[in-house]
Write a structure and sequence with these properties.
With about 100 residues, the protein is mostly helical. The protein is built from three helices and two strands; from the N terminus they run H-E-E-H-H. The chain is elongated and about 115 Å long.
Length: about 100
Amino acid sequence: MNVFTVLMVATVLAVSALFIALALFLTLISSELRQIGGVEAGYGTKASYLSKIRVGVRAIETETGMIAPQVTKLNGTLTQIRDGLVVVNGNLAALITAVTKQEA
């Protein structure tokens, strides 16, 4: 047998093994994806777990959508309170200074 014939047969066997492995793994992946699809919901349709997760995430997004404007409004109010407390702190510091001088 010629060397080139042996190499050709080895190449054909290797390519065949590759395609068989590819088909096997694609079949296994497909069966796993079918399991993720969910349980039968009737009339051959499936209640997909992934679609349930998507709906749940969308509901959370909708319910928490009003938080951002309220937090912005709250930050503005807290900034005003902080500024007022800085003034109160300054007044208290001046009062302590005045009382300390009066005692002396």
